[in-house]
Automatic annotation (TrEMBL):
Gene3D superfamilies, sorted: 2-enoyl-CoA Hydratase, Chain A, domain 1 (3.90.226.10), Lyase 2-enoyl-coa Hydratase, Chain A, domain 2 (1.10.12.10)
GO MF entries: delta(3)-delta(2)-enoyl-CoA isomerase activity
Subcellular compartments: Peroxisome
Keywords assigned: Isomerase, Peroxisome
Record protein name field: Enoyl-CoA delta isomerase 2, mitochondrial
Superkingdom: Eukaryota
Gene Ontology cellular-component terms listed: peroxisome
Pfam families on file: ECH_1
Length: 182
């Protein structure tokens, strides 16, 4: 999804309109992950911070380099969860670890992310080239309709929950932006 036009448009908007437009763009951005019909695969080869971390939970498969880190410093910035993480993180990590990650800004290593299920594999940079990319090329050869229908069966029961979480998170962030960070 290309948000460059929306972001350029924001540069000309001020005040409350800017906040509402920002919230709308964020909600639209996350909805693109929720609704994408084909499998979404991600490779993390460095720090994933904020939205780049939270949207990983909306991907179908995530691979990480052994140097990758995952960090959501929401409360340290006076912000709240985004990217459906208020729903996805407790499911992936369990409520206690999710709370540490979201409330206390606990940074996860690639090994931690693997242990908790955010990523499905951790590889060296060389292994990403030699092992992961061949897997992805092999997947690209599979019948597309089979992949799309399989994803739909897995994702469809969760769509309303994810869209509701996305809206609630964006509404809360909008409040935080309107009132200022405290």
């Amino acid at each position: 999804m290309d948000l460059s036009n929306d972001i350029e448009e924001l540069a000309d908007v001020e005040g409350e309109t800017h906040i509402k437009k920002s919230s709308f763009i964020l909600q639209k951005y996350v909805a693109a992950f929720i609704d994408y019909p084909k499998p979404l695969l991600a490779i993390v080869n460095g720090p994933a911070i904020g939205i780049s971390c939270t949207t990983l939970a909306l991907c179908d498969t995530v691979y990480a380099s052994d140097t990758a880190t995952f960090h959501t410093p929401f409360t340290a910035l006076g912000m709240t969860p985004e990217g459906c993480s208020s729903v996805t993180f407790p499911v992936i990590f369990g409520s206690s670890v999710a709370s540490e990650v979201m409330y206390m800004g606990r940074k996860l290593s690639a090994r931690d992310a693997l242990q908790y299920g955010l990523v499905s594999g951790v590889y060296s940079a060389a292994q990403l080239e030699s092992e992961v990319w061949p897997k992805l090329r092999q997947m690209a050869k599979l019948p597309p309709k089979g992949l799309i229908f399989a994803k739909r069966l897995v994702r469809e029961p969760l769509l309303k929950i994810l869209h509701d979480a996305n809206k609630a998170e964006c509404d809360r962030l909008e409040e935080r932006w309107e009132r200022g960070v405290k």
